[in-house]
Structures are given as structure tokens and as C-alpha cells.
From TrEMBL:
Descriptive protein name: Receptor family ligand binding region
Protein species of origin: Palleronia marisminoris
Limits of the Leucine-binding protein domain: 27-363
Parts forming coiled coils: none
Residues annotated as signal peptide: 1-21
Family membership noted in the UniProt record: Belongs to the leucine-binding protein family.
PANTHER family: LEUCINE-SPECIFIC-BINDING PROTEIN, PERIPLASMIC BINDING PROTEIN OF ABC TRANSPORTER FOR NATURAL AMINO ACIDS
GO terms for biological process, alphabetical: amino acid transport
Pfam family, one: Peripla_BP_6
Record keywords, A-Z: Amino-acid transport, Receptor, Signal, Transport
Length: 400
């Protein structure tokens, strides 16, 4: 609902001398993510900075929007995330929650948001369940999902001839979804899955899991995990000489922050799928330069997604003239966007944001011209091809 306040300076009508109080729309956004653990680098404080940049670039104050941004650490725990979300909606007047990496937390927050009329603008989680089995009219899934990752990396590697796969999978909703989606893509491309093993989330010692993968005889070890788990698995695979023995690693979800942490020497040649890369064009470079000035690192696609989602939400609030979220979400779905970071896209009726995805390869050190010059673009995956089709039960087009 709209909460209006009177500005300190009245607008004076020139002819009548009557003072009118200008009205402003109060908007409260909550950035909920991992600020201290496995996913802190890919989301964390960078997502808060991205949200602030969206408010500033939108010129919210000049357009009559008084925007407050809250932030909190969900610690990758669904109960913690749910409690924060409920408190934000009930006590802090939060209108929309952004980011929320860790799919188990995101699904819990999506449920709370649906119950309480808030909007989840998810950029950090990957599970397709957010717009498939556990979809909700108040959930918008912005940046990527496990189906798009599988369509990019899984299909490219299988079609290149490495067709025997073994999965090393994080044992929670995201890892399960990524393994399932990639398995389907591999088999559709003529490949074979010879086995899998699941590891605790988060994990530090991957030795036993990697040795099982090595013994499987697979061409490819698919890492169905993310963040620090992926980085540690790749480091330990290198230490064990796994990649030197003829097997390759497929990082099914990897961020530029992970590649930077590994170094190009270790990560070179890895193929990965992302929705955004800072060096794609003049607009991404300009925005990323401003982000880096505040955060001392280039943005991940999660940070870019938080910015883009916040911008589209604020455009809808301005157009609707309130934070009535039923009307705001309807406007977001009815109006496409041409985004400086994601290009052209739209919010589908089920809340899945459709935009292009990209297949990248990590450059060899000799080909890199700077600390963050890490990717070479190999392919564009059209949004309609990257994401799963909408299912009937998640078609909310008749609502709102």
C-alpha cells in the first residue's frame, strides 16, 4: 500500500497563494543474502551496493519515491531467512525483498512473501522450483536458473565430445536441481551419466568425493555446486592431478568472483554460463567501473541482477503510483525492459525473467590484459531457448 508524507517545503500556487503538500511514495527494499559465508563474495555487500546504485540511477527522489534499503544475513539457513522476511514485512514495512542466494532459503522466503503480499525479486538462487513446482504470483526470478546453466555449459561440453558425466553435487535444493537439469540436457545431447555423489553444504574437504568421481571413468566431472564449494573442489581436483589425467571439470555454476579467487592459471579453459559479464559492451563497462569504485571488485551476475530487478520494480512503482504489489507486479509483467546490463527482456506470467544467457571460456593468463579480463564469449543462448517453458499451473496472467 502507499504511505505518503508531506515534504518540508510546500509548493505554492502562483495565482492563489495556496500551499499544497507534495506527496511521495515510501518504498522499502530488503536485500537478504549471505554476508559472511560461502556466497558472500558473489552476493553479500555487493548486492546492497547494486541496489543503492539502482535507486540513485533511477533518480528516485526526483520522481517522488522515498526509498529505504535494509540488509541482513540469512546465513544460508531457511529458518533464519524466513524469520527475517516475516519481521521485515510485519514490522519494517518492507515492500520487496531482493537477492536471496541459496535455493532452500529462497523457496522459504518466496512462501513468506506470497503469504504476506510482498514481492521476491530473486537474483541469487538457481532452483527452477521458484517458477515451476513452487511458483507464486509474487515471485520474480531474475538472473539465472539451473535449466539455463545446463542448457549452456552442459550442452556445449557434451556436444564437443565429452559425453560421459559424473556429478559432484551440493546436497540441497539448488544442487539437486542443477544435477537434474544438466543430466536431462546431457542425455538429450546423446551423453551418458555414469554416476553421482552428494556432498554436504557447505563443504571444505572434497577428497573422498573427487576420488569417487575419478574412479568412475567419466570424461567430465560436473560440479553441481557454487561459490566457495566450487572453488575448493576445483583447487583440490588440481592438487590430486585429476584434470592432468584426462578428466575435465565442468563448473556448472561459476561466477567471476570464483574465477578471480582461483586465478586464471587454475581456471583457464573452464567453460561456464552467465547472464552478465562486466566487459561485454560500453554500458556494462561503465556501470561496472562505478560499482568497482565502491566495492573494490567487479560485479557478479547476481549483483547485476539485483540492480536490474530493483530498476524494473521502481519503474513499476512510479507508473502505478503506489506500492500496491499486485498492481506493481502486473505492471512489471506487462512491460518489457531494455536493460543496460541484460539487454532486452521481459517478465513472463510465471515470474521467470526471459533474457539472453552467454557461454564463456576462462582465458589463459597470456591472453588476459588485466586482473579482471577473464572471459572470452563463446556463444549467445537466446532467452526463449535458455529457460524452461512455463507450466500451466504457474501461469498467473489472469491474476491482477
Amino acid at each position: 500500500m502507499m504511505r505518503s508524507i508531506a515534504l518540508g517545503t510546500a509548493a505554492v500556487a502562483a495565482l492563489t497563494g495556496t500551499a499544497y503538500a507534495q506527496e511521495t511514495i515510501d518504498v522499502t527494499l530488503g536485500v537478504l543474502n549471505d554476508r559472511s559465508g560461502t556466497y558472500a563474495d558473489l552476493s553479500g555487500e555487493g548486492s546492497v551496493i547494486a541496489a543503492r546504485m539502482a535507486v540513485e540511477d533511477f533518480n528516485a527522489e526526483e520522481k517522488g519515491l522515498n526509498v529505504e534499503i535494509l540488509s541482513a544475513d540469512h546465513q544460508n539457513k531457511p529458518d533464519v531467512g524466513s524469520n527475517i522476511a516475516r519481521q521485515w514485512y510485519e514490522q519494517e514495512g518492507v515492500d520487496a525483498i531482493l537477492d536471496v542466494p541459496t535455493s532452500s532459503v529462497a523457496l522459504a522466503v518466496a512462501d513468506i512473501s506470497n503469504q504476506m503480499g510482498g514481492v521476491l525479486l530473486n537474483s541469487g538462487a538457481g532452483s527452477t522450483e521458484l517458477t515451476q513446482g513452487q511458483c507464486a504470483p509474487t515471485t520474480i526470478h531474475w538472473t539465472y536458473d539451473t535449466a539455463a546453466l545446463a542448457k549452456g555449459t552442459g550442452q556445449a561440453i557434451t556436444e564437443a565430445g565429452a559425453d560421459k558425466w559424473y556429478f559432484l553435487t551440493a546436497d540441497y535444493a539448488f544442487g539437486h536441481s542443477l544435477e537434474e537439469n544438466t543430466m536431462n540436457v546431457v542425455e538429450e545431447a546423446g551423453g551418458e551419466v555414469v554416476g553421482s555423489v552428494r556432498h554436504p553444504f557447505p563443504a571444505t574437504d572434497f577428497s573422498s568425493f573427487l576420488l569417487q568421481a575419478q574412479a568412475s571413468g567419466a570424461d567430465v566431472i560436473g560440479l553441481a555446486n557454487a561459490g566457495g564449494d566450487t572453488v575448493n573442489a576445483i583447487k583440490q581436483a588440481s592438487e590430486f592431478g585429476i584434470t592432468q589425467s584426462g578428466q575435465s571439470l565442468a563448473a556448472l555454476l561459476m561466477f567471476i568472483s570464483d574465477v578471480h579467487a582461483l586465478s586464471p592459471e587454475t581456471a583457464q579453459g573452464l567453460q561456464l554460463t552467465e547472464a552478465f559479464y562486466w566487459d561485454q559492451n560500453d554500458e556494462t563497462r561503465e556501470w561496472s567501473s562505478r560499482f568497482e569504485e565502491r566495492h573494490n571488485a567487479k560485479p557478479t551476475m547476481v549483483h547485476a541482477g539485483v540492480y536490474s530487478a530493483a530498476m524494473h520494480y521502481l519503474r513499476a512503482v512510479e507508473a502505478v503510483g503506489s506500492t500496491n504489489n499486485e498492481e506493481v507486479v502486473a505492471h512489471m509483467k506487462a512491460n518489457s525492459f531494455d536493460d543496460p546490463l541484460f539487454g532486452e527482456g521481459y517478465v513472463r506470467a510465471d515470474g521467470r525473467v526471459i533474457h539472453d544467457m552467454y557461454l564463456f571460456e576462462v582465458k589463459a593468463p597470456a591472453d588476459s590484459e588485466g586482473e579482471w579480463d577473464l572471459y572470452e564469449q563463446k556463444a549467445v543462448i537466446a532467452g526463449e531457448e535458455a529457460f524452461l517453458p512455463m507450466i500451466d499451473e504457474c501461469d498467473f496472467s489472469s491474476e491482477g
